[in-house]
Amino acid sequence: MGYDIERFVGYVNEGLLCSICRDVLEDPLQAPCEHAFCTACIHGWLVHHSNCPEDRQMIDVSLLRPLYRYMKNDLNRLQLHCKNRDYGCEMVCSLESIDRHERECEYSQIPCSNAGCTVQIERRNLDGHLAVCEYRSRECPNGCGYTILSAEDTQHNCVAELRTELELLRSEMICRVEEAKHEMESRLDSQRRHMVQKESILQNEIEELKSQMSRMMSDVRSLMAAERQHRQELEQAELEKREL
Predict the structure, then answer these.
(1) Which of 11, 49, 181, 228 has its CA at a distance of 20 to 30 angstroms from the CA of residue 242?
(2) C-beta atoms surrounding 133 within 10 Å
(3) Cβ-contact 128, 121 below 8 angstroms
(4) What is the pLDDT of residues 30-64, one digit of tens each?
């Protein structure tokens, strides 16, 4: 949709009106047949049609182009009232700068920034509203440190609030202790399993060393027996040599 023509000061050229909504062009596009439209209007039209709403010539979204520069300049120079005119804003500015003004306009209706508050208030009155808003928050004046809403003033009880916080802290501490306990038990179980595995490996290695040592002792005994046999044979050979 375009800008309501009633907002404009003075004469508006027919060529600057949307051929669909008949308001002043907003974010304009132009067809090859030179008819101009608001972007939202022509896109909505082409969902159900494939021709220009003015002369019925065939058009496609891909054929739409930005407005000619001289027409765009004429459009930007148009003077119009702020949309907040009914709330008291008397600003009249060019179409080119109207969006910037309206974003900052003191008469714009904006929501209260306090969570839970649904009030829409003029920007210029926001500070006054925030000072009395029933959803505003502040720190407890009795020193308990709680942030409370004005609507909760009568229900706020420092002792009860602190007791509740203490219970929450106690519950949280218990949970943390339990978590730490489970974590330590898990680590101990893991280390215990690791030690058992290491013990089993060491035991196997010890048995293997014992076996190797037994084989070595057997080999030593065999060598010593062979050496005695060899010495006896040498002595026998020596005797035989002497006899000869």
Answers:
(1) 228
(2) 20
(3) no
(4) 999 999 999 999 999 999 999 999 999 999 899 99
SS3 (DSSP) at 180? helix
pLDDT confidence tier of residue 144, bands split at 50, 70 and 90: low
**Residue 78 belongs to some domain of the structure:** yes
Q: Residues 70, 132: one domain?
A: no
Q: Please report, for the domain that includes residue 122, its CATH number.
A: 3.30.40.10
How large is the average pLDDT for residues 121-132? 86
What are the contacts of 219-225 at 24+ separation with CB within 8 A?
none
Q: What distances in angstroms separate CA 24 from CA 9, 34, 131, one per listed residue?
A: 12, 16, 41
Q: Are 91 and 107 in contact (CB under 8 A)?
A: no
User: Which residues make Cβ contacts (< 8 Å) with residue 71, sequence separation at least 6?
Assistant: 15, 16, 28, 36
58 & 7 share domain: yes
Element (H, E) at 37: strand 36-38
Q: Is residue 211 part of a domain?
A: no
- Note the pLDDT tens digit of each residue in 174-201: 999 999 999 999 899 989 998 989 988 9
List all residues 6 or more positions away from 172 whose beta carbon is below 8 Å from its beta carbon.
none
33 and 98 share a domain?
Answer: yes
Domain count, the chain: 2
**Based on the domain organization, do 12 and 92 belong to the same domain?**
yes
Mean pLDDT, the chain, integer: 86
What stretches of 91-157 show up as alpha helix (H) in DSSP?
95-104, 126-132
